[in-house]
Each structure stands twice: as C-alpha cells, then as structure tokens.
Amino acid sequence: MKIFNKTLVIAMALPLAMGSMSAFAGQDHQDHQGRMMKDHHGGKIFSQLDLTAAQQQEMKTLRQANRSAHQALRVENHKTMLAERQQLDKLVLASNFDESAVRAIAEKMSQQQVERRVAMLEQRHKMLNILTPEQKQKYAELQQQRAEKHVMRLEAKNSH
Predict the structure, then answer these.
(1) pLDDT at 31 over 80
(2) Which SS3 state, helix, strand or coil, does residue 38 take?
(3) Nearest to 102 by CA among 112, 90, 113, 114
C-alpha cells in the first residue's frame, strides 16, 4: 500500500510539475531577451559594447519582430499546454497507471520546450551577429564575468 501511495503522490504531482515547467518554458523565451540585455546589476550588457546607431536600430527591429511572433504563438502554446495537462490528469486519475501514455505526453512536452529553447537561441544568434568581432569578444568577456559572479553568489549563499 505504501508503494501505491507514493506512486499516487508522484502521479498527482507530475501534471503540476509539467504544467509549471511548460509555463516557465513559455515565459523563458519571452523573459530571456530581457535577461540577455541586462546583467545582474541592472546595467545593459549591450550598452557596454558601444553599439552604433545602426546596430541599435537593427537590435530593436529584431526584438520587435520576435515579440510579435511570440505573441502570436502564445495563445496556441497555452491551449496546447492545457490540453496536455488535461490528458495527464485523466491518466493520473485512471484506475491503472499507463506509464507509456504518460511518458509519451511528457516527452512531447519536453520536445516542445526544446523547440522553444532552439528558437530563443536562434534569436540570440541573430542579435549577436549584428556585433563586430571585437564587440562579440567583449560580449563573451562580459558574459564570463557575469557567470563567475553568479557562481560566487551561489557559493556565498551555500556557505551560510
């Protein structure tokens, strides 16, 4: 009986976890542009790269185009996520646990998250290709500094 209870708890938590991951993944693409543009101190990384007016305009155009495309897909992605969560709920509430069906839906949801991540990275690639080689080098250095600061914060947080 204990195994059944544990399985039931896991089965009930799975749709919540997957739904949360999907919601965060949907936000991930939208929020990432803002994070990419800002470092942890609120300053803009690209402002430290001495972009020309033409580069700034190109960046703005790319961001606007991406925002429009993202908004168009947002409703459809939300409908898909809700339908998948409903399917998972039905499977979890069924008298027998159908692992293969749950696994198929979970894998489909994971693949959708991968697709969103690829689209986000494609957008980042387009933005970074606006930069000169020198600006790309400086961007990489700033990103490295940001990563090191993040690790130091985590280490400091864990040492307390």
Answers:
(1) no
(2) strand
(3) 90
What's the angle, vertex CA 53, arms to CA 48 and CA 59, rounded to 5? Answer: 75
Count of beta carbons in the 10 Å neighbourhood of residue 59: 18
Residue 141: in which H helix or E strand, if any? helix 133-159
Q: What is the pTM of this model?
A: 0.60
> pLDDT digits over 32-44, tens only?
444 444 443 334 7
Tokens (6 digits) for 18: 């997957």
Provide the mean pLDDT of the chain.
79
Q: Roughly what angle, to the nearest 10 degrees, separates helices 53-93 and 2-37? A: 170
* Closest to 120 (Cα-Cα) out of 41, 30, 48, 23: 30
Rg of the chain's alpha carbons, rounded to an integer? 21
Each domain of the chain, given as residue ranges in start order, spans: 2-159
103 SS3 class = helix
pLDDT at residue 6 tops 60 = no
Residue 77: both structure tokens together? 């992605």
Q: In angstroms, rounded to a whole number, what is the distance separating the alpha carbons of residues 20 and 14?
A: 10
Return the residue matching tokens 């799975």. Answer: 14
Is residue 127 within 8 Å of residue 57, measured between CB atoms? no
